[in-house]
Amino acid sequence: MNDNAELLKQLRIERNQPEKKTPGPLQVVIPLAIAGVVLLSIAIAWWLLRGNGGPEVRTAQAAPLSSGPSAASVLDASGYVVARRMATVSAKVTGRVQEVLIEEGMRVEEGQVLARLDPVDADASRALATSQLAAARSQIDNVQAQLLEAEANATRLQKLVGNQLVSRAQYDQAVAQRDSLRAQLATVRRQAQVAQDQLRIAGHGVDNTVVRAPFSGVVIAKAAQPGEIVSPLATGGFTRTGIGTIVDMDSLEVEVDVGEAYIGRVRAKMPVEATLNAYPDWKIPAEVIATIPTADRGKATVKVRIALKEKDPRIVPDMGVTVSFLEQAPENDDEPRTGVRVPAEALVERDGQALVFVLGDDDRVSERQVQATASTGSTRDITSGLAPGELVVLDPPEELADGDRVKPAGSN
């Protein structure tokens, strides 16, 4: 009996005992998230310890001064290639285009035929002038025959009047007839000369229907087509004013706008280095022709003309160009030049000192104090503090300090 009672007590449910609860979703996710954050922090720390941290920077190599131009840039400016000799060719008379013999990019020589107009009217005028000249010359022949007879008659009557065989009045009448024919002959000769001049003018009219190149150059625009009406005057409507545009490529030069504050640095015959935007690696030697003695009040600039010392088919009008005005080369070119040249964006000024950051083999930078020239171009000449071949950081961040680790651009 006692054993049965003990068994019954074991089967009894205790009402005061707390119930066991099943864990919810949040109780499972939160610990997992915390564990993920810890693992991510460990991975970031491991990545930084490997040396891949630090800001990404651009670098450039210091070049020895002997490898570059002998003069530093004192001023940079931008402008365009322009042609001093360019013409839109037109006919001297109004007419309908019969044929056009040019195309864009075609090379033409001085006097070469570019186009022809319909010469019907001009040919008719020349034919009329030719007929008028022939009529004037026939009148000369007629008057000369009459004058020959009148002179013979006057000579004969002169002998008879001396022998008193004819009256004095008959002789005077013959002399008057002779003198009248002489005057008439002079008149018809002048008329013939006028007719000849008219024929020459009519010939010019025919020649004006042929459009020729005024100088040698390259055609950059074709403005008319056969069948169109062209006129040297702008009459409006559908009338063209030109056949095409020709540029003398030998007359190309550069025009740049220089700020008024820097125009004092520019002088005639000053050496210049020009760089076309289309060919950034091509340095073209040039020199200043003149400074135009007027300013643009809207832009506060002064225009400067620059002559290109190299002629090349790649140089075409209206190309964008950047020019660097250079210092005069030293008089003694035999003296060796020491130092290096670096891009201007490599230099920073801190506490009144010119500094550069040199990149080492371990991707750490070292701060260097340098002596730099006062030029304001795209490069700087460093006379001390930097050796040729060293890598300098371009546009270093303000927070970059000596010994910091950086990531060169393009490295993994």
Description:
With about 400 residues, the protein is of the alpha+beta class. It folds into 4 domains: about 55-70 and about 335-410, conserved putative lor/sdh protein from methanococcus maripaludis s2 fold, CATH 2.40.420; about 75-85 and about 250-325, Elongation Factor Tu (Ef-tu), domain 3 (Beta Barrel), CATH 2.40.30.170; about 85-120 and about 210-245, OB fold (Dihydrolipoamide Acetyltransferase, E2P); about 120-205. It is about 30% helix and about 30% strand. The chain has 4 helices and 24 strands. The strands form 6 sheets. The protein has a 6-stranded antiparallel β-barrel with strand order 3-12-15-14-13-16. Strands 2-17-22-21 form a 4-stranded antiparallel sheet, with no helix packed on it. The chain has a 4-stranded antiparallel sheet with strand order 4-11-9-6, with no helix packed on it. The longest helix is centred in the middle third of the chain and has 43 residues, at about 120-160. The radius of gyration is 49 Å and the shape is elongated. Pfam families: Beta-barrel_RND_2, BSH_RND, RND-MFP_C. It is found in: Cell envelope.
Topology:
Blueprint: H1 2-11, H2 26-49, E1 56-61, E2 63-64, E3 73-83, E4 86-89, E5 95-100, E6 107-108, E7 113-117, H3 120-162, H4 168-207, E8 210-212, E9 217-222, E10 229-230, E11 244-247, E12 252-259, E13 271-276, E14 283-296, E15 301-308, E16 320-326, E17 340-343, E18 348-350, E19 353-359, E20 365-369, E21 371-372, E22 379-384, E23 391-394, E24 407-408
